[in-house]
Amino acid sequence: MRIIRTIAELRDAVRAARQDGRTVGLVPTMGAFHAGHLSLMQEARTGTDLVVVSLFVNPTQFGPNEDLSRYPRDEARDARLAEGEGVDILFAPEPAEIYPDGFATTIHIAGITEVLDGASRGAHHFDGVATVVAKLFGIVAPDVAYFGQKDAQQVLVVRRLVRDLNIDVRIQAVPTVREPDGLALSSRNIYLDPDARQQATALNRALAAAAEAVDRGERDGAAIVDAAARILNDAGITPEYLELRTADDLRPVTVLTGEALLAVAAQVGAARLIDNRLLRVSA
Ligand code: PAF
Questions:
Q1: Residue 124 is a catalytic residue
Q2: pLDDT tens for residues 263-279?
Q3: What's residue 282's pLDDT?
Q4: Burial of 37: CB neighbours in 10 Å, binned 0-12, 13-18, 19+
Q5: What's the CA gap between 141 and 256, in Å, rounded?
Q6: 226 class by beta-carbon count within 10 Å (0-12 exposed, 13-18 middle, 19+ buried)
Q7: Is there a contact between 256 and 281 (Cβ–Cβ < 8 Å)?
Q8: Which end is more exposed in the chain, N or C (fewer Cβ atoms within 10 Å of the end residue's Cβ)?
Q9: pTM of the shown model
């Protein structure tokens, strides 16, 4: 595996692979790899010939009071893990390579970024994500890019980005990887002390309770959300948001008909966690 730090060198490597007729897969990450990241790399390894993983803690998607400075960073460990998954290139640029002096462009996607995490964290968050992902697509020009379904809203934002800007890349969403007790893997789980780690299991249990309500025939959006809210409340968690929204464009759902996304965010101990579940009315 090569570790590459400059855009020019990365472009040369990708160009050489393309000349040999090889397809290119991109896994955009901020490092601190866990099994969720590794499953993205495995999908890329299976689906494409040249696998590029980007490792860049993107400052523009963090708010002033968020965890940019303490976000876990261990490039040597990440490099070992990526190499173990058969990744070809780890692209780990310095911030100035991505945002040189005079950088002045921001991509803003209206609508779907204004709810859930966009409302909770502020508009800068998805502006930062969309801008850096557009840059990565411009730098790597991948055939396929892989994103975790745990960040369901991010997947929708990236899909809209490539649709609206006619970027020629296929977006593949990869299922959330969970601990045996259901907690969704996240780089931020390391902030959880043992009590908070136990409390955090309530997020997935809440989503499961809502799915059970749907399986029992509940179709009323508020009642479905309430089934989840009760579990969070019992665990002493006050969600930042807990909302049922359409799975493709995040409009509020009052009555569940086909498929909808139940999304939650909550501060649990020292970690801000998110999770989601697609709820389906079975035919
Ligand atoms: O999901 C992430 O880790 C980040 O939001 C991403 C897509 C790498 C952009 O910085």
A1: no
A2: 999 999 999 999 999 99
A3: 79
A4: buried
A5: 38
A6: middle
A7: yes
A8: C
A9: 0.97
Burial (CB count <10 Å: 0-12, 13-18, 19+), residue 236: exposed
**Ligand 1, atom 5: nearest CA belongs to which residue?**
129
Domains and CATH numbers, the chain: 2-174 (3.40.50.620), 187-278 (3.30.1300.10)
The separation between CA 32 and the C-alpha centre of its own chain, rounded to angstroms, equals 13
CA 61/CA 117 separation, integer angstroms? 11
Contact in structure between 224 and 213 (CB atoms under 8 Å): yes
CA distance 109 to 111: 7
CA of 159 to the centre of ligand 1 (A): 14
- Which residue, among 46, 28, 34, 32, has the nearest Cα to 89 in the 3D structure? 28
Asked if pLDDT for residue 283 goes beyond 70, the answer is no
Instruction: Tell me the one-letter amino acid at 150.
Output: K
From ligand 1's centre to the CA of 281, what distance in Å? 31
Calpha distance 36→20 (Å, rounded): 30
Q: Which residues line ligand 1 (CB under 6 A)?
A: 28-30, 58, 61, 129, 132-133, 151, 154
Six token digits for residue 156: 């929708």
Q: How far apart (Å, rounded) are the C-alpha atoms in residues 98 and 57?
A: 11
